[in-house]
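Lab notebook, design round three. We kept the backbone fixed and only want residue identities now. Task for the bench partner: fill in a sequence for the structure below.
Input structure tokens:
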């Protein structure tokens, strides 16, 4: 694959180094008991009964595997060869390889024809990490069949700004709010962050009707002193119930650590 720019090179470099340890990082209770469960709640009901899914920026196959287990064929598409290699190993171990096509590529230039997927997933921030979210949305919407759904997770502008305010002060927070982009020092690349209204506009501009925007997570903030809540199974379940009760509430969605969007491509007759 030819790589267009500095942003893509930095993302490829980072995930090239991180791939082998990537899954371990997400095995913590916050993701297992809370975040991933909320994500699946807002993916599963929108999956088609059959057909082909594009798992865009699908990484090590975290969501490809459950979608295949529901009987769907999946194109696991990612800019990082190393992330795809980890995914291939996991998928072969589960003997699911007949249902998956692995494809290296950039979501800003998707090498598939128009209207060919029955569902598109872009979970875990690939839209935030790409060079041009508007171009990516154009591509993701183009390959989705009319009348079908798309779900995506992105970085949340207000949550990032709040984090900057605490760590670096008001100047840096204002910079993020103005540029809607920040440099993730630990990863070595830029990330786009979205307010709920920016996200809505981006999707609508690209011919998608917004079904839901959800904050993940809106009440729970992961801190050493709150971790004990997630260690206790009963409390963790209550916490999930609480997050599911609040995560669509428009007045607080924007405070979610991440935003999750579900949208539908208009059918021809709509
Ligand atoms: C945080 S991981 C999420 C992986 C997976 N979707 C998940 O939820 O575990 C972000 C993924 O997006 C991929 N990515 C970033 N920019 C991309 C781009 N422009 N095109 C395709 N994939 C990209 C990365 O290589 C990485 O695998």
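Proposed sequence:
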């Amino acid at each position: 694959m030819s790589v267009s720019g500095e942003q893509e090179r930095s993302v490829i470099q980072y995930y090239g180094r991180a791939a082998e340890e990537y899954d371990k990082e997400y095995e913590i209770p916050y993701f297992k008991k809370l975040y991933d469960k909320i994500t699946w709640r807002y993916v599963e009901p929108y999956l088609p009964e059959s057909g082909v899914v594009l798992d865009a920026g699908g990484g090590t196959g975290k969501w490809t595997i459950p979608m295949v287990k529901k009987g769907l064929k999946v194109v696991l598409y990612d800019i990082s060869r190393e992330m795809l290699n980890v995914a291939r190993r996991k998928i072969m171990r589960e003997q699911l390889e007949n249902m998956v096509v692995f494809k290296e590529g950039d979501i800003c230039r998707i090498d598939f024809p128009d209207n060919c997927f029955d569902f598109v997933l872009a979970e875990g921030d690939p839209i935030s990490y790409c060079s041009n979210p508007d171009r990516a949305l154009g591509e993701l919407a183009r390959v989705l069949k009319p009348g079908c759904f798309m779900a995506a997770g992105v970085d949340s502008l207000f949550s990032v700004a709040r984090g900057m305010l605490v760590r670096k002060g008001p100047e840096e927070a204002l910079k993020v709010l103005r540029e809607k982009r920040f440099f993730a020092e630990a990863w070595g690349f830029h990330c786009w962050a979205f307010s709920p209204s920016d996200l809505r506009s981006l999707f609508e501009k690209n011919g998608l009707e917004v079904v839901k925007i959800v904050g993940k997570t809106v009440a729970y903030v992961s801190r050493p002193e709150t971790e004990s809540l997630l260690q206790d199974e009963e409390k963790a379940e209550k916490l999930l119930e609480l997050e599911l009760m609040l995560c669509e509430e428009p007045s607080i969605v924007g405070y979610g650590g991440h935003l999750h969007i579900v949208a539908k491509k208009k059918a021809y007759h709509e």
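Keep this in mind before ordering anything: The chain has one domain: 6-265.
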